[in-house]
Amino acid sequence: MTAGRDGWSLDPAPAGRPAATLRPDAETAWRLCTRGIQPATALARAGCLGDRRLGEAVCRIVSVVY
């Protein structure tokens, strides 16, 4: 996924490398998806390698848990 002038694209990253990598631990991921922590806090905990705007977009995820 890459960020372009017209928005996000699901095209493969150049040279097969990911555009961004986040590695949250299980607790951070759970709290993020259930809105138990703010996206900025999750991003700080997980760290972001690569395109920070993509990492920020990923951290706006919301999940419905049954």
Structure explained in plain terms:
The protein is about 35% helix and about 20% strand. Strand 1 (about 1-5) and strand 2 (about 5-10) form a beta hairpin. Helix 1 runs antiparallel to helix 2 (about 40-45). The mean pLDDT is about 85. It is globular. The protein is of the alpha+beta class. The protein has a two-stranded antiparallel ribbon. A two-stranded antiparallel sheet has the order 3-4.
Largest sheet: 2 strands, antiparallel
Query: Could you give the distance between the termini?
Result: 29 Å
User: Spans with pLDDT under 50 lasting ≥5 residues?
Assistant: none
Helix fraction, binned, reads: 25-40%
Mean pLDDT: 84
Output the number of helix runs. 3
> Which series of helices and strands comes N to C?
EEEHHEH
Strand order of the largest sheet: 1-2
User: Given the helix and strand composition, which structural class is it?
Assistant: alpha+beta
Radius of gyration: 13 Å
Strand content: 15-25%
Shape: globular
Q: Care to count the β-strands?
A: 4
